[in-house]
Amino acid sequence: MQKTGDRNARLRLEHGAKQKDYLLWKISKFPNLFQSKPKYLERVHPINGKIYRYWRHQSNATPELGAWRRIFYVDGKKQIPRDLKNYLKNYLSLAVWYMDDGYYYGRDKVSYLYLGRVSKQEAETASGAIKENFGLNSRVLDKKNKGFVIYFSPAETIELHQKIKQFILPMFSYKLCNQTLNLLTP
Questions:
Q1: Nearest-CA neighbor of 159 among 143, 139, 138?
Q2: What are the start and end residues of each CATH 3.10.28.10 domain in the chain?
């Protein structure tokens, strides 16, 4: 969310070159916000010289997005609001979060939701919202350099995947456990 004045903000979506269809799917959910076409960009990393290819699309600036920005960015810093449970209300929102920041670790049959550099209290708030709204038990783990993650045990991973599988786009089926994938096939 980018501030564009005192009251307005816009939403900037960026996804890797291979996730163009996911970007298009997201913007299709908000046709009144996104009017132009997404842009393909390449950026050279200043330290390692690697070329990063990605797609970007920016919404129109609106007061409504400005209000959302004030909830999720305090003093310009991203935060998880204490009342997250009021915003994370349905399985589609949980599935999008998982497609964006989730990871399935097949060896241990567990899942993670990466939160990045938030406080432990914010991570606990996110875990609590998932418990309260979706009945999923999780733990908060500190992954040091990667920040906090929400961890789902093998049993909770199966339950999580069963609850969100209908919303997971085919390109993200690798983020689902085999037991859940087997349930998707007739």
A1: 138
A2: 2-76, 84-184
CA angle 146/124/122 to nearest 5° reads: 70
CATH class of 2-76: alpha beta
CA-wise closest residue to 12 among 38, 48, 32: 38
Contact 117, 110 (CB under 8 A): no
Backbone angles phi, psi at 159, to 5 degrees: -65, -45
Which residue(s) pair with 99 in the sheet? none
**Contact at 8 Å (CB) between 103 and 111?**
yes
For residue range 95-130, what is the model confidence (pLDDT) as tens digits? 999 999 999 999 999 999 999 889 999 999 999 999
- What is the distance between the alpha carbons of residues 163 and 165, in angstroms, rounded to a whole number? 6
Residue ranges of E strands in 32-127: 39-44, 51-58, 73-74, 77-78, 102-105, 110-116
Q: Residue 89: helix, strand or coil by DSSP? A: coil
Does pTM top 0.70 for this prediction?
Answer: yes
Q: How far apart are CA 150 and CA 131, in angstroms?
A: 11
Summarize pLDDT for 2-33 with one digit per residue, the tens. Answer: 999 889 999 999 999 999 999 999 999 998 99
